[in-house]
Amino acid sequence: MKSDNSIHIVTQALRDLIASSAPGAQLPSVRDLIEKFRVSPATVQSAFARLAGEGLIDPRPGQGTFVRQRPITGAASDLSWQAVALGAGRHAGGSMQDLLALPPPGSIPLSMGYLPQDLQATELLSAALKQIARNPALWDRLPFEGMDLLRAWFAREIGHGNVFSPHEAIICPGGQAAIASTLRALLAPGSTLLVEAPTYIGVISAARAAGITLVPVPGDADGVRPDLLEAALHETGARVFYCQPTFANPSGALLSELRRKQVLKVVADARAFLIEDDWARDLHLGSPPPPPLAAQDPNGHVIYIRSLAKSAAPGLRIAAIMARGAALARLRAARGGEDFFVSGPLQAAALNIVTSPGWKRHLSTARNALAERRDALVTALRAEIGSDIGINVPQGGMHLWMQLPDHVSDTALASDLARQGVLVSPGRAWFPADPPGSYLRLTFAVAPSILREGARIIGTAIRQRGDRQTE
Q1: 29-61: buried (b, 16+ CB within 10 Å) or exposed (e) per residue?
Q2: Residue 7: CA atoms inside 13 Å, Cβ hemisphere, count?
Q3: How far apart are the first and last CA of the chain?
């Protein structure tokens, strides 16, 4: 609600400025508006997006934002009727929009969820697209389940006896689309979804948009607690549990070997489904992680999701859902009615890079860099804040989960940092219910020099918050 109010305030102030300005006049920059209204960059970007949708501004990348030349009409547009027609919204989209907003130039982006450009597989993708351009047949319609060879690659990647056949894989336009499709296929509006606490913000957003009730199941450094999962399944009657057992986002937790067996047994005994979001399997920063839960599931309880956007590049919107039995039929029906099929050239590009000799070299380079950058951020934070700071140092992925002192509000601290150009993600957005404390999610994918500067500013901001508390 506070985020929505801030967007409204900034939007209305800009409307007033536009009304008093001549067409073509340049509006204040994002940085100037952040300073003036003491809001986050995402809030300003959301205000600009609303004004662009109303046709009031003309954003020009690299130049600025300008008042749009307005056509001569008899009267100003009245869009107020839309509020009644649309009714109450189901999207709690503010936090998701904050993460998706592009960082302003010169900022320190510690909130992003993808590899930075220097670690992306851009050379492999460029070479793949040049090769694909010679095959015009790829622009024709494809089976809605996806290209057979790409489905076969995803199925083989699970290994351990080929749990899924290629025909049990469905290609989707990215991991978020795969999650949203799976929720709609398995859960009716008003039903209950169990999730880890904290959990991926994208599943919170997708579930709320679908009218699904979220119930959190707490975990610790070893992942979700099987005893609490069993109790939640029993008490709620839920039949679906979403989790990231391998380097969970945001906590970085790796579900222990013992708990993997226990969680699978709990789910099987409840005759429930487990949605396994294996987003970070390619990004282990030490020893390879245990096999997916799906590899140990003989009876079709696990719905498996794997994406390439995190390990290759954000624009490679390719993922797969794998399932068996009636659940697969439900997923096919859901996917077939949503976007028909994923672009053929994009699927061919994905297949080209993951089967090329350079793919393993790319992953090795990215892992080594991420491990170095993780250690750089942890060292810098501990030097700035103290060695007893609550940080979960993950063995994979690209995020640190940091617990703040009790007197420091995560949202207030994030606002303080945004005004200084450091973008972080407040922890409360990653909890579907009340958080047990104050946290930040910090991405360690950017260059070490940027991480060290970010840590310095974070440390100063936390100390200043503590000084205010004692005044």
Answers
A1: ebbebbeebebbbbbbbbbbbbbeeeebbbeee
A2: 18
A3: 29
Backbone φ and ψ of 211, nearest 5°: 75, 30
Residue 70 has pLDDT above 90, yes or no: no
Q: Distance (Å, rounded) from C-alpha 256 to C-alpha 243?
A: 13
Residue that has been written with the tokens 């997916």 in this structure = 292
Residue 312: DSSP 8-state:
S
How far, in whole angstroms, is CA 323 from its chain's centroid? Answer: 22
Cα separation, 196 vs 433, whole angstroms: 11
For 180-217, the pLDDT digits (tens) are: 999 999 999 999 999 999 999 999 999 999 999 999 99
Distances (CA, A) of 271 to 90, 214, 289, 300, 303: 29, 19, 27, 10, 13
Q: Tell me the average pLDDT of the chain.
A: 88
* C-alpha span between 5 and 37 (Å, rounded): 12
- pLDDT-based confidence at residue 91 (cuts at 50, 70, 90): low
Place of tokens 């979700």: 224
State the CB neighbour count (10 A cutoff) for residue 209.
17
Residue 30: which H helix or E strand, with range?
Answer: helix 30-37
Distance CA 180, CA 374 (A): 30
DSSP SS3 for 54: coil
Interacting residues of 352 by C-beta distance below 8 A, sequence separation 6+: 124, 127, 128, 131, 132
Mean pLDDT value of segment 291-316: 94
d(CA 352, CA 162): 21
The Cα–Cα gap between 452 and 441 comes to 16
Would you say 306 and 157 are in contact if contact means Cβ atoms under 8 Å apart? yes
Phi, psi of 168 (to 5 degrees): -100, 15
Sheet containing strand 273-277, strands side by side: 169-172, 319-322, 302-307, 273-277, 240-243, 192-197, 213-220, 223-224
pLDDT digits (tens, 9 = 90+) for 306-334: 999 999 999 999 999 999 999 999 999 88
The model's pTM: 0.82
Calpha distance 233→252 (Å, rounded): 24
CB-based contact 2:39 (threshold 8 Å): no
For the beta carbon of residue 409, count every other beta carbon within 10 angstroms: 15
From CA 124, how far away is CA 145, in angstroms rounded? 25
Distance of alpha carbon 421 from alpha carbon 470, whole angstroms: 26
